[in-house]
Structure formats: structure tokens, C-alpha cells
Amino acid sequence: TVLAHNGHRVKLWTRNPEQAAEMRERRRNPRFLPEVELPDGIEPTASLADAAGGADAIVVVAPSSGMREVARLLRPHLRPEALVVHATKGFETGTLQRMTDVLAEELPQADPARLVVLSGPSHAEEVVQRCPTTVVVAAQQLEAAEMAQDLFMNSFFRVYTNPDVVGVEVGGALKNIIALGAGLSDGLGFGDNAKAALLTRGLAEIARLGVAMGANPLTFSGLAGIGDLVVTCTSRHSRNWRAGSMLAQGLSPDEVLAKMGMVVEGVRTTQAAVLLAQRYSVTMPIAEQLNAVLFEGKTPQAAVLDLMGRVRTHEIEELALAPWTPGGAEHGRN
Ligand SMILES: NC(=O)c1ccc[n+]([C@@H]2O[C@H](COP(=O)([O-])OP(=O)(O)OC[C@H]3O[C@@H](n4cnc5c(N)ncnc54)[C@H](O)[C@@H]3O)[C@@H](O)[C@H]2O)c1
Ligand SMILES: O=P(O)(O)OC[C@H](O)CO
User: Fold this and answer.
1) Ligand 1 within 6 A of 72 CB?
2) What is the pLDDT of residue 324?
3) Catalytic positions (predicted)?
4) What is the pLDDT, as a whole number, of residue 332?
């Protein structure tokens, strides 16, 4: 809707032909965003050839679990010069890859330096109402990020650029874990102090893993870090927060996911984060405890006791004393 508002002709692809037909006829997306009328510039289609064949830019927003499949379907239709932007917040299960890495593998005709990630505090429910929203676009190549900035930016949707693809992707993925924890904490009546602690110490462990993976620590004080963490832990729109509050009512993770009927990225991301923390030799106590609650039957009360009873420690860590350069981890830093 932002792109259509900006005057672009938008083909909205779904794999489901009935859904495409329904959106074409009713000019609404009844299952996922019923309250908004689709602007005239949007043409729903179930044909990826139709959607992507002539496109100057492609925006991929599949859940992380479907990113590789969607990229494979896209491969025969993508023009090499088209700008590829994704707004997915998660890692691939199994490979633990970031989304731009999955896209780079599956779309060999796309220049990896021109792959763009769009992230930040942006609940769709508010964006479609044109509530003031700020996001960040990151790409190795500044020109690509600026092209995405120009495509999306308008009076209610402000877009910043950042060269730190790793930090923007990691911040967007990991905040969902903390939002699950915040929902759980709120659902159990643990109070505002506990939620503030989760956000603050959550940001510390997000940055710890992110820096180990090559991110700029300053990215985590930006929109893809603290910005998205705040909105996802506090907004009534957050599926991750809502899923956490359902866990507090005693529902199992499978029951919660079935009841939500929409993607809750934080569940898989919690598992991925624990594995990434092992791979990069960093500690992520909140993710580890949430993982135990989600998948090992640990009670939230026992998890909180274990978090509060950890060995005493300093608050501030030496995250990155060396100046950050794009691609730091790939070049042997850390
Ligand atoms: N909803 C938001 O406000 C918001 C904001 C920013 C980023 N995101 C991110 O966008 C991604 C998608 O979230 P969403 O809110 O659109 O989820 P959603 O559950 O509302 O919709 C997901 C859509 O993807 C489709 N899908 C699932 N697997 C697919 C596959 N393999 N191939 C093709 N289509 C597939 C589903 O049928 C559904 O139409 C997530 O990573 C989420 O974190 C969402
Ligand atoms: O509804 P959630 O919890 O998936 O969060 C959506 C967006 O990531 C918020 O920026």
C-alpha cells in the first residue's frame, strides 16, 4: 500500500489463486488485513511470472520458513537489473542463514551487494492506516539502499539507510524472541520492572550475538534494534507478544501457533538464536531460558529464577572496541 500510495504499479503475488481472486474482486485481503481497502495501484495475482517478469523492483515478504522456496520460484522470472528488497525477520532453520544469504544463493543473477533488507518498527496494521512510521533499509551498496529509500519514502513512511546488513537483519530477527518473553512476562503478571529488564538485557544479548556475527554495535541503538524491540514488546498488534501472553495462559507452543493462524517468527528464531550463540561462543541467557520454556517443558517461573540467579556480572560489555567496517566478520574480525 505504501508503494501504491507513492504512485507505483504494484503486483501483489500470493501462491493461493483463490486468495488472489478474492483480493481482486473485493479489493480487500480479508484473512490478513481485513480493515483496509487495497489502493487502485495494487493488482493481486497468483502468477509469479506476471508479478515479477517485468518488475523493476521485487519486495519479498515471505516468512523466513518460506524464503528459500519463494526465491527458487522467483529465480526464472527475476530480471538481473531488478532491485530485490526483503522485509522478513528471521533466520533459516537448519542452515541458520540470514535472509540476504538465502536470497544470494537462490538468485544467482542478482548482485549480492544490491540485496536490500527493510526493517524497523512497522506493524502493517498501522502502516496501512498511514500512521507515521520510520524504517531502515540496508544494503552493501549505498546506491541500492537509496533506490529502496526513494521507492518507499513519503510523508508518513520515513526511510533511513544503513550499510550494516548483518546488524539490521539480526536485530529484526532477534527482537521477536524478546517480544515472546515480554508477552509471557506480562501474561504472568510479572510487572513493568520485569518487562523493562527483558528489553534492556534482551538488547544486550541481541547486540552481543550481532557483533559476533559482524554487525555494527550502533545499529542496535537504531530502528532495527531498540526501535523494533520497543514496538514488538509493547504493541497490541504484535503477534510475538500475543503468542507469549498465550503461553502464559498454559497453551503449548503448537496450540499457540495454531490459534494465531499467522506467522510467529520468534518461536523458530529462539531455537536458531541458541544454536547461533553456540556457534559464535556468546551467551544469550534470555533466549536460552525461553528455548527451555518453549521446547523443554520448563516453567516460566523456573526460567525467571534461573535468570535472576545467574552469577553476578558487569552491565556494560566491550562489544566492539575496533572501528566497525562493513563485512567485518567475513574479513576475520571477531
Ligand atoms: N506483519 C507485520 O507487521 C510485519 C512487519 C514487518 C516485517 N514482517 C515480517 O514479514 C514476514 C511475513 O510476515 P506476515 O506478517 O506477512 O505474515 P502473515 O502470517 O500475515 O502472512 C504470511 C503470508 O505468507 C504466505 N506464505 C507462507 N509460506 C509461504 C511460502 N512458502 N510460499 C509462499 N507464501 C507463503 C502465507 O500464505 C501468508 O499469505 C515475517 O518475517 C514478519 O516478521 C511483518
Ligand atoms: O507482529 P510481529 O510480532 O510479527 O511484529 C511485526 C513487526 O516485526 C513489527 O515491526
Assistant:
1) no
2) 79
3) 175
4) 32
pLDDT means per 10 residues, the chain with 334 residues, are 98 97 95 92 98 97 98 98 98 98 98 98 97 98 98 98 98 98 97 97 98 98 98 97 96 93 96 98 98 95 96 80 64 32
What size, in residues, is the chain?
334
Statement to judge: residues 60 and 185 lie in one domain? no
Among 111, 134, 163, where does a domain finish? 163
Report strand pairing: 42-45 vs 57-60. Answer: unpaired
* Shared-domain flag, residues 50 and 23: yes
Residue 328 lies in a domain: no
**Structural domain containing residue 202:** 166-313
User: Looking at residue 319, what is its pLDDT?
Assistant: 59
Last residue of a domain, one of 140, 163, 186: 163
Which is it for strands 115-119 and 133-138: parallel, antiparallel or unpaired?
antiparallel
The reported pLDDT for the residue numbered 326 is 78
Distance CA 132, CA 170 (A): 24
Is the dihedral angle over the CA atoms 192, 195, 199, 201 positive or is it negative? positive
- Check whether residue 56 and residue 194 sit in a common domain: no
- Per the structure, the count of domains in the chain is 2
Pocket probe mutation, ligand 1, options 263, 267, 270, max atoms within 8 Å of Cβ: 263
ipTM above 0.95, yes or no: yes
- CATH number for the domain spanning 52: value is 3.40.50.720
- What residues are in contact with ligand 2 under a 6 Å CB criterion? 89, 121-123, 176, 179, 228, 231-232, 237-240, 265
